[in-house]
Write a structure and sequence with these properties.
The protein has 586 residues and is an all-alpha fold. Helices cover 47% and strands 2% of the residues.
């Protein structure tokens, strides 16, 4: 059964919560529009039944043409530059660059799922060293991100098969080195540990006192058997080997399609953890006694079937979804703990939805984002409130802030240089804030999405926190002699969205906090309110930083007279509010 849905219209707080988590942020006008809808209505807008267009590929400003489908030539930029252009292009998709306004949030929602898949199936650009392979993997994720209305075979389970012979993944985890008689176990190990069934919840009693080589849900024997299944594939640097389902390039069998000479076709027997299951070649797909490309592919399908036949695979993936969109408990599993309750009362239902949908990602995410738990966890007796429960990733902070303030990138089609200049600054900011995009520390991926017990807290260190504040200061610094090319105009923002509240200092501060901060109920600037989610003292701090040496009456006069220097004073308010600890949360 699915998670129970939240009833009634969202309201501003819940609409902002949904759009921060499901997209990368939204303007006050977009939040207000969604506030008047139920969660189901909002989700129908974010994930429409009609597929969104696939974005055009990135352009190399040196040639004015794309290179990822046609291949680079001597006229193109250097390989490292092309990789940076791909990353800038991906950030542009998160920003909904060149997307009609009415599709902006739906486009961003899809890209948030693409980002989730990237954090799950890791990529390290410096190991892969191919902007084309990175692009085609990204497009693979995009095809499988919004899978609800696609054909039944478009699902997470099928994606697990496709990623196993994806060119980028073959290089990253040495699948291209995995041959019969000299197996390389790297991908097989990470397939089991990171990408599918996992090792169970941290601190669970079942994980203690295991024999060496037993990982509770699988064993070293299973890693070895899986590695044999996956033998015989190579990176296709011509990108001419096309998957008939996705029409995207994939790896190629070593030898040739009718004689996959590096593939081990002997039976592979799995451990008691998988019930002694066996992968054997389909004789109808063999070429006499020789393995073929089709028989090798079929063995991978059998392997994935075995892995997904265990319900713990669905639960492991649903935990990854939960930690990405909702919350990451930081304690070990003990009976009655928050982790145990989420596992038993939330993850189990998410797994039900995942399995019943045919292992589709989108129905699970939609049900989660519509659920009572997503909006009101305390009503179910849970300890932690989901609002403000996750520290923003550097991408969420950078992209989300720019989207909130309606920052527009130049069109890549008409001003590729300007587009990459700005996305390059964005990329640099994201890296400074502690997320080296497409360069995680190891093949497990970015620590915030997998590393127990710290998870998203890993984004905050003394250095990265200071840099977060510096990032905001650079956006709102009208007096700077060298302004950032990402500089934002707080005056225009207030005029567009808060013109009615602007003359009254108290009302303006409360209105901005209500839209910009994740916890914003019962705000007061006139006295202490025990039910306020931001303290009276905190609100007074925002107000005093805003007014600086002036008083509220003087601000009212200046606003009504449309004084030209209002932007400088509003910079003080936005710096105070967006450099606050509250703004680092979502």
């Amino acid at each position: 059964m699915p998670l129970p849905e939240y009833g009634g219209n969202l309201g501003i707080k819940r609409a902002a919560h949904l759009l921060r988590r499901a997209t990368f942020g939204a303007t006050p006008a977009q939040i207000l529009e969604y506030a008047q809808r139920t969660p189901a209505q909002a989700i129908a807008l974010l994930f429409p039944a009609t597929p969104l267009p696939i974005p055009p590929p990135p352009i190399d400003p040196q040639t004015g043409q794309e290179w990822v489908t046609t291949g680079a030539t001597g006229a193109n930029s250097e390989g490292f530059d092309l990789e940076r252009y791909f990353l800038g292009w991906f950030l542009g998709q998160m920003m909904s660059a060149d997307v009609p306004a009415e599709d902006s949030l739906a486009h961003a929602a899809r890209e948030k799922l693409v980002l989730f898949l990237h954090t799950h199936f890791t990529a390290i650009a410096s190991k892969i060293q191919s902007s084309r392979a990175l692009y085609f993997q990204n497009q693979l994720f995009r095809q499988f991100a919004t899978d609800k209305y696609a054909l039944p075979e478009v699902n997470f389970k099928t994606l697990t098969i496709k990623i196993s012979i994806d060119n980028a993944m073959l290089v990253l985890l040495d699948g291209n080195l995995n041959v019969k008689g000299s197996e390389n176990e790297n991908y097989a190990r990470e397939l089991l540990e990171l990408f599918s069934i996992g090792r169970g919840l941290e601190g669970h009693p079942n994980l203690k006192n295991l024999d060496p080589g037993d990982y509770y849900l699988y064993t070293e024997e299973d890693v070895q058997a899986a590695a044999r299944v996956l033998t015989g594939w190579a990176f296709d640097d011509s990108f001419q080997s096309i998957d008939p389902d996705t029409l995207l390039p994939r790896g190629v069998v070593k030898g040739n399609p009718t004689n996959a000479s590096a593939h081990d076709k002997d039976p592979k027997v799995f451990s008691h953890r998988f019930g002694g299951a066996t992968v054997t070649p389909d004789t109808s797909l063999l070429n006499g006694d020789l393995p073929t490309e089709e028989s090798a592919l079929d063995e991978i399908r059998q392997l994935v079937d075995i892995i997904y036949s265990n319900r713990d695979t669905a639960k492991q993936i649903c935990w990854k979804i939960y930690r990405f969109f909702v919350y990451a408990p930081h304690e070990e599993y003990t009976p009655g703990s928050l982790v145990a309750r989420i596992d038993e009362e939330i993850i189990e239902l998410m797994a039900d939805t995942f399995i019943a949908s045919g292992y589709k990602l989108q129905p699970v995410v939609e049900n989660l984002l519509c659920s009572e738990h997503f909006y009101d966890s305390n009503n179910g007796g849970f300890i932690d409130d989901n609002f403000g429960g996750i520290i923003k990733s550097p991408i969420d902070l950078v992209v989300g802030t720019l989207r909130t303030f309606s920052f527009e990138l130049p069109s890549m089609n008409t001003d590729a240089t300007g587009f990459y200049e700005r996305t390059g600054v964005m990329l640099g900011s994201i890296e400074e804030l502690g997320m080296n995009f497409y360069e995680p520390f190891d093949v497990a991926g970015y620590e915030a999405y997998h590393q127990f017990p710290i998870y998203h807290r890993s984004w905050i260190t003394p250095n990265t926190l200071a840099r977060r504040y510096n990032f905001i200061r650079d956006l709102f610094n009208t007096l700077s002699l060298n302004p950032s090319i990402l500089a934002l105009n707080g005056l225009e923002f207030v005029q567009q969205h808060f013109n009615a509240e602007a003359p009254d200092v108290d009302e303006l501060v409360k209105a901005l906090a209500n839209y910009l901060l994740p916890v914003s109920q019962n705000l007061s600037l006139t006295g202490v309110d025990a039910n306020a989610e931001i303290t009276y003292e905190r609100m007074q701090y925002f107000k005093l930083r805003f007014l600086d040496s002036f008083d509220a009456a003087y601000w009212n006069t200046r606003w009504n007279e449309s004084a030209v220097d209002l932007r400088e004073q509003l910079d003080l308010l936005f710096n105070a509010m967006l450099q606050s600890p509250e703004y680092q949360l979502q």
